[in-house]
Amino acid sequence: MTSSAASPAAGRLRDIGIWRRFLNRPEFGSIVGAILVWTFFAIIAGGKGFTSPKGIAGTLEIASQIGILGVTVSLLMIAGEFDLSIGSMVGASGLVLGFLIVEAGWPVWAAVIAAFAFALSVGAFNGYLVYKTGLPSFLVTLATLFILRGAAIGFTRLLTNLTVISGIRDKTEGDPIAWLFSGILFSPERGADFKISIIWWLGLALVATWVLLRTRFGNWIFGVGGSSVAARNVGVPVARVKILLFMTTAASACLLAMIQVFSAGSADVLRGQQKEFEAIITAVIGGTLLTGGYGSALGSMFGAFTLGSTQLGIVFAGINTDWYQAVLGIMLLVAVLVNNWTRRRASEARR
Amino acid sequence: MTESNAPASATAPRSGVPVLEARNVSKYFGRVVALKDVSLAVRPGEVNCLLGDNGAGKSTLIKILSGVHGPDEGTLLMNGEEIKLSSPRDALNRGIATVYQDLSVLPLMSITRNFFLGSEPTKGWGPLRRFDLDTSSRIAKEQMREIGIEVRDTGQLVGTLSGGERQTLAIARAEYFGAKVLILDEPTSALGVKEAAIVLRHVLRARTKGLGVIFITHNVQHALPVGDVFTILSQGRLEGTFRKGEVDMERLLKLMGGGSELDDLERELEELAREAEQGEDISALPPVLDETPTGTHGFPTI
Hints:
The complex is a heterodimer. By secondary structure, chain A is mainly alpha-helical. Chain A has helices at residues 10-23, 28-45, 53-78, 86-103, 108-133, 137-160, 168-172, 176-182, 197-214, 216-226, 228-233, 238-264, 275-285, 297-316, 323-348; strands at residues 164-165, 184-189, 192-195, 267-268. Chain A has 15 helices and four strands. Chain B has a domain at 3-108 and 164-258: 3-Layer(aba) Sandwich (Rossmann fold), CATH 3.40.50. In chain B, the strands form three sheets. In chain B, strands 6-9-10-3-11-12 form a six-stranded mixed beta sheet, with helices on both faces. In chain B, strands 2-1-4-5 form a four-stranded antiparallel beta sheet, with helices on one face. In chain B, strands 7-8 form a two-stranded antiparallel ribbon. By secondary structure, chain B is α/β, with parallel strands linked by helices. In chain B, α7 (163-176) runs parallel beside α8 and α10 packs across α11 (259-277). Helix content of chain B is 37%, strand content 23%. The A-B interface holds A 17, 21, 210, 214-216, 218-220, 222-223, 226-227, 229-236, 289, 293-294, 343, 346-351 and B 88-89, 92, 98, 100, 103-109, 113, 116-120, 122, 129-131, 133, 150-153, 155-157, 159-160.
């Protein structure tokens, strides 16, 4: 700072430095992508309401639901692991909640705590199994994905003869705990409801980013994903890091279940299907490497916004929604290529 | 060049208690005898070169010394007192730092983050306790400057450093966190001549600072200029321990590989060379010829 007068070029160099640093950040691609995709749909579907308050509220609601999972999944992926079981976890923990409220007559707060306890213990089980067996988490959580889905259908049918638990709304109407998950922040016009899930999504992304970049635990996440052997050699508690992250992804699935169940007023076994893949896509679009050790939670937040814009943009543009998955696949492919390029740039940047 | 850096006193035989010693250590994996009755000692300010061909038991011995495995027989002593290492972290806390060939630093993490991984300084309190990046970056930059690597920004990824610089970073980190013994596992074997020289210079630097260094290599050319003591392993057994000046390169090579095998190899290579001279197609020769001039002086690095 003091030498700025002595070297007139310092100011310029600094600007370039910041720009280059931004270019080398893992979330760079996701920010550009989010802007491009939203602008694209704003142009082709803006006249049909995509940019109206209703369109924006809808986009943000979809983005928030995917993003809640994507943010925690990106942390786990940076640590070098996958969690496929979260898709089933959304359905299963929603059923736990619904069953306890409707059938067992529990108060809402107790049912919420029980559902989170259930999710956290399954997450811990996933993490412990991955750590203890040394098997790829892809396989371990694929197993949990099916076990949870199957058991959820089985138990629910056994207890209620149905695979849906309804009548939750009657018991939770006006409940402040329920409002925490499904409340409406404000509605600038009829049908344009900005939901509280948006706060959860942005809040989670900011907390995750802070943990990742500014705490010891965050440094351990990068280290464990880069090489768990190297991390262990310098004293990082690898098992604790992984198990805690599996618990975090499970808890985020449970949070999404709360949001969906309290909003819809019913719990359905099939909720959360394919969310596990959307969460991974969100993380990859956000700049997280599939192989671990590199990535961004903030990027995941933008990735979720891209997915939300795409999903709703297709509807507003009048394109058949069948195309959504194909577009998702193309975006994933582009993201992987961009990530490879960014990472190579970052690794090659010379002193 | 490297030899001139060493203080004259360091080359004389040192007395005193070894900072780390393995006494009559054996290790079995099922029916395989990985190590049998091996002893090794390193004193402060001394470089002990652990030499041996692939499969000689070098890695097993390192793993015992760095707390990965416990010995089945024999004892470990630190400053003359018997110790038991429960984990690599335990060894690290006692001041035994191991730098592995390609597992010492993470290329996709920044220099600062690598330097402090597992020992991050923190500031703040309670849930706001956080990684003190400013202090960390400042220390990392100072330490990098001290080892002769000038970086503009310690936020840049370690992947941008060369192989020799990465090894040096790992050595500097171990020194900074108070290592008394430095175990270097093949730090030069994947490096070119220039890069290896950078690392060897820092081996000598660590010795000058009074650290005990165990330098594992199968490259006698790298070992001779820096070593005070040479410990040779062959097929899990101790082939001999020599002080500087008691052995030459040829003798070391023979001990490492077993004399007759080396003679066989030499004959085979001469045979190939003769065929090549007689107008045979050189490109059809086995690749072993390409490796010999740069590598281990007659040892195929397969």
